[in-house]
Amino acid sequence: MSLILHDTRGASKDFQDSVTDLRSIATFVKASVREGTWIFYKFKDFNNTTNNKQTWRKVVKPGKDEVDISDFNGSVFLLPQKSEGIVLFQHAHYGGPSRYYNDHCDDVNPDFPHETLAGASSAIIFGGTFEVFTEVAGGGESSTLTESEYPTPEAMKVVTHKIRSIRKTR
């Protein structure tokens, strides 16, 4: 995967993977995405906070034009290049730690630990269909998700809860 970032002085740097703290390298203002889908975040550590906002991230796919990232130069995440599967994120708007799954998982909480609110709050599905649950082992509320982006629990139709288990259905 290929990403070229340009800093305020006009210098550029090539990246092949996610970076948790872009500002420790330089102040990047433009991006050229050649391959892969990248999520740019306003803050380091992929906006690892519970009060994420949609305006704090930008999803960029390959294109010919440079993209302005001056408001999203805290960190960058490369989505897995898979034809099927689901990526869960601990916080809304694809923030915080993430994990890729291609099958069922009866308890995602160990991947997204928190003192009181373990689980995942957003998802991106590349292909296939997944049923998500608000309790471990397929319990609680459930919702069926297909290939799409789900930035919030509301988008996943599990309004007041975090995802705690998943099951691949197709």
**Structural class designation:** mainly beta
Order of the strands making up the biggest sheet:
2-1-3-6
Low-confidence stretches at least 5 residues in length (pLDDT < 50)?
A: none
Provide mean pLDDT, rounded.
Answer: 94
Provide a count of the helices. 1
Could you estimate the helical fraction of the residues in percent? under 10%
Q: What is the H-and-E element order?
A: EEEEHEEEEEEEEEE
Largest sheet: 4 strands, antiparallel
Number of strands: 14
Measured by DSSP, the beta-strand proportion falls in 35-45%
Beginning-to-end CA distance, first to last residue: 27 Å
Shape: elongated
Radius of gyration: 16 Å
Oligomeric assembly: single chain
Organism: Acropora cervicornis (Staghorn coral)
Family: Belongs to the beta/gamma-crystallin family.
Keywords: Repeat
Domain Beta/gamma crystallin 'Greek key': 86-167
Q: Which features does this protein show?
A:
170 residues; mainly beta; 4-stranded antiparallel beta sheet; 1 helix; 2% helix; Beta/gamma_crystallin; repeat
What this model shows, in words?
With 170 residues, this protein is mostly beta strands. Helix content is 2%, strand content 41%. The protein contains 1 helix and 14 strands. The strands form 4 sheets. A 4-stranded antiparallel sheet has the order 2-1-3-6, with no helix packed on it. A 4-stranded antiparallel sheet has the order 9-8-10-13. The chain has a 3-stranded antiparallel sheet with strand order 5-4-7. The longest helix is centred in the N-terminal third of the chain and has 4 residues, at 44-47.
